[in-house]
Amino acid sequence: MATFPVTTGDVLTAAIYNSLTAFTIGSDQTADYTAVLADQYQVLVPMNKATAVAFKIPTNASVAFPIGTAITVLNIGAGTCTISAVTSGTTTVLSAGATAASPTLAQYKTAVCIKTATDTWYVVGGIA
Q: What dihedral angle (degrees, nearest 10) is formed by the CA atoms of 83, 87, 93, 99?
C-alpha cells in the first residue's frame, strides 16, 4: 500500500500506483475507538459492536492529521455508531445528520470524516 503524504523525490512505482484504488481494511473495532494517524487516506475503519459504539476524532493537539485528511468509517455491527469529537469544545464535527455535531451510522452504513481546518471536520455519507 502506498504511503501518504509523499515528499519531493519519491518515486511512484507500478505497485504503488496500482494500490491507489484499493482500501486497506483495518481491524474490527469492537469498542469505542479514537482515530489515529494510521487511519487516514485509503484505510477503512470497521466498527463492529452489537450495541452502541463511538468513533471519536481527537483534537489536532493530540493527533495532527493534515488538513484534507479523509477517514472512512463503516459500521458493520448491529449497534449504532456515533461519530463525534473527543473534546467537543475544541474539535468541531459537522454533518447534515439529524444532530449536526454527532452524526450516526446504522448497520452497513459508511461515512467519510474530512478535515478542513485545524480542528474542523465534516462527516458525509450514510448518516442519520
A: 70
The pTM (predicted TM-score) of the whole model is 0.81
Nearest Cα neighbor of 50 from 32, 30, 12, 77 is 77
* Strand spans (E) along the chain: 24-25, 33-34, 43-47, 53-57, 70-75, 81-85, 92-95, 104-105, 109-117, 120-125
Residues 6 or more apart whose Cβ sits within 8 Å of residue 11: none
State the Cα–Cα distance between residues 95 and 39, nearest whole angstrom. 20
For the chain, what is the mean pLDDT?
Answer: 87
